[in-house]
C-alpha cells in the first residue's frame, strides 16, 4: 500500500513539474508576429516589425469598469518614473491594444488617453483596427494577443472576460516577462525589470 502511495505521489509530482515546465517554455518562446499592422490613435498604421525598442504591452477595452483603467493609471505613474530616468521613448515605449476594436475607434482611444492625461505621442501608442477593415483587423488583434497567451472573450454584453497580464517584449517583439494587471500591477517591480533589460 505504501509503495502504491509513493508511486502515485511521484506521478502527481512529475505531472505538476511537466505542467509548470510547459508554461515556462511556452511563455519564453512567445513572440509577436512582425508582419502585424494595426491603426494607432491618430488613424496611422503601426507595424510591430518597425520599432526596435523594448515595449510594455497592455491589452484593454475602454468600457472596462475596473482592471483596465487601474492598470493604465499605474502605467502613467510608471511612465513618469521612466521619464525621470531619461529612458521613456528612447529605450522603452508603451503599446496599449484594445480588444474591442468595433467600439474603440481611434477617436475613442484619444478620449481614453485624455482621461488619463496621456500625451498623444509615438512613445505611448494606442492600437485598434481600421474601421474600413475591421473584421480582418480584429483577427490581427487576436493574433497579437494569442502570441503572448493573452485570452479574451465577449460574452455578448460588451463586458469582456480576459487574462489579467501586461507583457514586456524586447526590440524583436520576443517575450521577456509578464506582470499582473490592476491593483496587483507593481510599478516598482516593472520599473526595475525594464531598467535591468536596458542595462
TrEMBL record:
Residues 26-199 form the Thioredoxin domain. Transmembrane segments: none annotated. Keywords: Copper. PROSITE patterns: THIOREDOXIN_2. InterPro entries: SCO1/SenC, Thioredoxin-like_sf, Thioredoxin_domain. Gene3D superfamilies: Glutaredoxin. The keyword Magnesium does not apply. The keyword Flavoprotein does not apply. It comes from the Bacteria. Belongs to the SCO1/2 family. PANTHER family: ELECTRON TRANSPORT PROTIN SCO1/SENC FAMILY MEMBER, LINALOOL DEHYDRATASE_ISOMERASE DOMAIN-CONTAINING PROTEIN. This is SCO family protein.
Amino acid at each position: 500500500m505504501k509503495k502504491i502511495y509513493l508511486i502515485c505521489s511521484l506521478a502527481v509530482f512529475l505531472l505538476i513539474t511537466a505542467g509548470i515546465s510547459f508554461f515556462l517554455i511556452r511563455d519564453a518562446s512567445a513572440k509577436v508576429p512582425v508582419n502585424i499592422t494595426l491603426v494607432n490613435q491618430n488613424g496611422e498604421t503601426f507595424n510591430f516589425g518597425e520599432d526596435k525598442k523594448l515595449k510594455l504591452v497592455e491589452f484593454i477595452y475602454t468600457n472596462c469598469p475596473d482592471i483596465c483603467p487601474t492598470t493604465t493609471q499605474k502605467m502613467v505613474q510608471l511612465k513618469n518614473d521612466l521619464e525621470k530616468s531619461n529612458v521613456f521613448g528612447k529605450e522603452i515605449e508603451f503599446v496599449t491594444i484594445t480588444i474591442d476594436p468595433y467600439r474603440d475607434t481611434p477617436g475613442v482611444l484619444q478620449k481614453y488617453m485624455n482621461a488619463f492625461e496621456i500625451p498623444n505621442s509615438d512613445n505611448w501608442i494606442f492600437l485598434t483596427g481600421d474601421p474600413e477593415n475591421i473584421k480582418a483587423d480584429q483577427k490581427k488583434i487576436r493574433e497579437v494577443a494569442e502570441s503572448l497567451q493573452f485570452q479574451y472573450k465577449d460574452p455578448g454584453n460588451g463586458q469582456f472576460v480576459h487574462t489579467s497580464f501586461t507583457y514586456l517584449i524586447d526590440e524583436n517583439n520576443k517575450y521577456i516577462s509578464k506582470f499582473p494587471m490592476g491593483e496587483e500591477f507593481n510599478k516598482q517591480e516593472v520599473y526595475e525589470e525594464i531598467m535591468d533589460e536596458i542595462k
